[in-house]
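tool=predict chain=A
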Amino acid sequence: MDINWGLIWPLIALQIILAVTALISLYKAEPQDIKGSKLMWVFIILIINIFGSVAYFVIGRKHT
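tool=predict ok
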């Protein structure tokens, strides 16, 4: 089985960029600006990969 790395590398890069951006945003956020605990969101961001990072930005932050 031959893997087409030309398609895989952009997805890996996207996942890393989203996770790092979400973790930095989470680190800088005040606890009252986040729905749930920071530790819970760290696990969601790291374990669920791309969808965890997107979920943090859509659901996890309180929009003011």
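The mean pLDDT is 90. DSSP finds three helices and no strands in the chain.
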